[in-house]
Amino acid sequence: MSTTHTEVTDHEHLPDDGCETVEHEDHVDHVHGQERHPEAKVHTGHDMTHDTGDGCETVQHGDHEDHLHDGHRHFQHGDHVHEH
Fold first, then answer.
1. What is d(CA 3, CA 38) in angstroms, rounded to the nearest whole number?
2. Is the CA virtual torsion 10, 16, 20, 21 positive or negative?
3. pLDDT, tens only, 47-73
4. CB of 55 within 8 A of CB of 48?
5. Looking at the whole model, is its pTM more than 0.85?
6. Which of 64, 67, 77, 84 sits most deeply, having the most CB atoms within 10 A of its CB?
7. Which residues make Cβ contacts (< 8 Å) with residue 47, sequence separation at least 6?
8. What's the rounded Cα separation, in Å, for the pair 63 and 31?
9. What is the per-residue pLDDT for 15?
10. How far apart are CA 36 and CA 3, in angstroms?
11. CB-based contacts of 30: which residues, under 8 Å, 6+ apart?
12. What is the per-residue pLDDT across 5-28, written as a single tens digit (0 to 9) for each?
């Protein structure tokens, strides 16, 4: 199996997507067939912040509120958006 990344243009890998994962230097790779793809923390094209009144549906998650955005769950932490 190759330990290098394969350029991906049609999908991305997010935490807990069901793929096998392996540590690769300073990040996590997702094993996808015979390829290894780097994990993305927030999906491509997400350029907004989440705040009260942003129009997203929200759900309580532990000690914070998640915003549902394009089928993903995000929460704002300071100036960073995190995805579950």
1. 11
2. positive
3. 889 999 999 999 999 999 999 988 889
4. no
5. no
6. 67
7. none
8. 32
9. 86
10. 7
11. 13, 17, 19, 20, 21, 36, 37, 38, 39
12. 876 667 888 888 899 999 998 999
